[in-house]
Amino acid sequence: MVPGPVVHAAEPVPLLAFGARVAGDDARTRVVVQFDRKPDFSIHYVANPVRVVVDLPETAFGLKAESLEPRGLFEAIRYGGMGAGSSRLVLSAKGPVAVTNAEVIEEEGGKSYRLVIDAEKVDQPRFDALLGDQQWTGSVVAAKTDRPTIAPAEKGGAFVIAIDAGHGGIDTGAIGGATKTEEKHVTLAFAQELVATLSRESGIEAFLTRDKDVFLSLPQRVQIARNKGANLFISIHADTLRQKDIRGATVYTISDKASDHLAADLAQRENLSDEIAGVPLQSEPAEVADILIDLTRRETQAFSVNMARTVVSSFEGQINLINNPHRHAGFRVLQAPDVPSILLELGFMSNKDDEKLLLDPEWRKKVSGLLAVAIKRYRDQAVANGG
């Protein structure tokens, strides 16, 4: 008997959100999103600041930016992927709110469906009661991050590097001033190029924390690196500034005190990633709460600073650097107590010259090569010093 062809299960087709509108005032606001198929959804509340979180199956958002322009009770509205076949709509409120009605309405005999969400202003005690009554921690769409047992690396084994493409999914990051390109796409394109470059190097094993447009929380990024026994963690970013004339790369390390206002402001913005995605604010695990306390963490920080200086040295005279290119601040994504970590700001999407370079594949290849040189130099020093 001749076996028949192997049939593989088709990937689920994402929902399509193709239209939306927001209407209302500071007392009541309605949000409507149109889908091509009936969406399952769930609604939750998050405090500090107040957000209404709408979890959806995986959804392609074919929406015009102005269709979900915030108004009424809401000061910001964001949407995007959350990984694991799910997506999310986050409504950031100006104050305590309650959803009074949420329903899906069939249109045109099932040709499309409307998700209608009505919210009203409430007092703080009522909002607190809503928070207390819900059984939700935001973990329903989080990737599994339990740390497996890691076998000790054999002497002479691969030097493992985690390359973290900043932002992703619902968290778009900065928006380019000229092209409106989202930072999450810039960071992923560079991270992929860097991993490809490093993979050609003997004795180096590089991997991506995310390999597609999905959201990862800041603690998840740290834990992924630790789970895989990373010897080094590099987070890639391309921010924007109000001062559009500022350009060039910057390398950041963690510190409990920022080196300057620019570093402090950048860290504050980057640390809002989880808030943007509607992840509840939780206290940090004890093991990462006070990163600069004991000797082990101080040693890790020393290795991080050494890596930052090595990168700056490799870049000097080759690509544009900001003034004082090694800076430091309290970046949550750099807080692994046992993995030397840096955040590399490739340039600024707010500067037209930087933005042009960030979108240039040849420039990405050049910078990846320079970074690989720095990483190999750092690896040799770290191995010689027992790092």
TrEMBL record:
GO terms for molecular function: N-acetylmuramoyl-L-alanine amidase activity. InterPro entries: AMIN_dom, MurNAc-LAA_cat, N-acetylmuramoyl_amidase_3. Pfam families: Amidase_3 (PF01520), AMIN (PF11741). It catalyses: Hydrolyzes the link between N-acetylmuramoyl residues and L-amino acid residues in certain cell-wall glycopeptides. One of its GO terms (cellular component) is outer membrane-bounded periplasmic space. Keywords: Hydrolase. GO terms for biological process: peptidoglycan catabolic process. It comes from Ensifer oleiphilus. This is N-acetylmuramoyl-L-alanine amidase. Its EC number is 3.5.1.28. It is an enzyme of class 3 (hydrolase). CDD domains: MurNAc-LAA (cd02696). Residues 222-376 form the MurNAc-LAA domain.
